[in-house]
Amino acid sequence: xxxxxxxxxxxxxxxxxxxxxxxxxxxxxxxxxxxxxxxxxxxxxxxxxxxxxxxxxxxxxxxxxxxxxxxx
Length: 72
What we know:
The radius of gyration is 13 Å and the shape is elongated. Residues 67-72 have low confidence and may be disordered. The chain has 2 helices and 4 strands, in the order αβββαβ. The protein is of the alpha+beta class. The longest helix is centred in the middle third of the chain and has 14 residues, at 41-54. Helix content is 25%, strand content 39%.
């Protein structure tokens, strides 16, 4: 079971100019933190820093939102 292995899941919704991310506590399903970062090397570094700050001392996994077609 996921809750036995991880404390947090990091969800990312990527876009051309920015990425939305959310840190979710696995056991409760509570969103611990949400942010938007630039789709750049600086934004990626910022995202990693935010995850380290808000998912402290926990095991986490990253997930990516399903890609959407141009028709969506």
